[in-house]
Amino acid sequence: MSNRPQTSEAGADAAPSPDIERQALHDLRRRLPKPIVLVGLMGAGKSTVGRKVASLLECSFCDADEAIEDAAQRSVSEIFEAHGEAYFREGERRVIARLMREETGVIATGGGAFCNNETRELILEEGIAVWIDCDIDTLVERTGRRNSRPLLKNGDPKEILTRLYEERAPFYAEAPIRISGSNNPHLETAKNILEAVERWLS
Ligand SMILES: Nc1ncnc2c1ncn2[C@@H]1O[C@H](COP(=O)(O)OP(=O)(O)OP(=O)(O)O)[C@@H](O)[C@H]1O
Ligand SMILES: O=C(O)C1=C[C@@H](O)[C@@H](O)[C@H](O)C1
Ligand SMILES: [Mg+2]
């Protein structure tokens, strides 16, 4: 591309019209054959970036952890404490199966959900899976802001996240789309996801 300044008479330097962007997002929403399902480790941004993706598309958003909490009337931490991880995973499997039947917009999964074979197969079949990948130091910093993740309570968060990354990356890598969630603000990551989905569709 030339560095020559372009005149506004030609219209070439005009900022993209928000209406055009909105129309493109609307078209993408209409062409989405199945829900966008975000997967990846704790702190990658599935919940917060997922909300932004849904608001850009003007479509529904559902967070699987919140849906589990609503169904159980307890927080994720309370479920882990009262019943253990296996019980939580069984509830998670059932709730995500329901969300995959009911939801048409954007779904943020919990960090471990995609490692369940049944859940992963269902998401790969019935959704557009997007792995938000992220470097460990960023995940440690972000997850350190809140004490709400039971798996990080017993031990060194960096060691735990490093181990979980090694164990889970082969599962996350089955998602057809992978996006970096490390260095960009939420909105940029959300737009990168939508651009990748657009490419995936075409
Ligand atoms: N791209 C980003 N830029 C800056 N901060 C971010 C970004 N993505 C996420 N965060 C922040 O990191 C924290 C964790 O994000 P979020 O809750 O969305 O992660 P998650 O992937 O849903 O994690 P979990 O699997 O535990 O539910 C939040 O404070 C969020 O605002
Ligand atoms: O990575 C995980 O296994 C988890 C992530 C969170 O989203 C919650 O689903 C829960 O804290 C477990
Ligand atoms: Mg989340």
Name a few traits of the molecule:
single chain, 202 residues, alpha/beta, Rossmann fold, 5-stranded parallel beta sheet, 9 helices, 55% helix, globular, disordered N terminus, binds adenosine-5'-triphosphate, binds (3R,4S,5R)-3,4,5-trihydroxycyclohex-1-ENE-1-carboxylic acid, binds magnesium ion, amino-acid biosynthesis, shikimate kinase activity, ATP-binding
Structure description:
The protein has helices spanning 18-31, 46-57, 64-72, 76-83, 85-102, 117-126, 136-143, 157-172, 186-201; strands at residues 36-39, 61-63, 106-108, 128-133, 177-180. The longest helix is centred in the middle third of the chain and has 18 residues, at 85-102. It has a five-stranded parallel sheet, sandwiched between helices. It has a single domain, classed as 3-Layer(aba) Sandwich (Rossmann fold), CATH 3.40.50.300. The protein is of the alpha/beta class. The structure holds adenosine-5'-triphosphate (ATP), (3R,4S,5R)-3,4,5-trihydroxycyclohex-1-ENE-1-carboxylic acid and magnesium ion. Adenosine-5'-triphosphate binds next to helix 2 and helix 9.
Give the total of beta strands: 5
Distance, first to last CA: 25 Å
Unreliable sequence segments: 1-12
Structural class: alpha/beta
CATH fold label: Rossmann fold
Count of runs of 4 or more consecutive helical residues? 9
Name given to the CATH architecture: 3-Layer(aba) Sandwich
Q: How many structural domains in the coordinates?
A: 1
H/E order of the elements?
HEHEHHHEHEHHEH
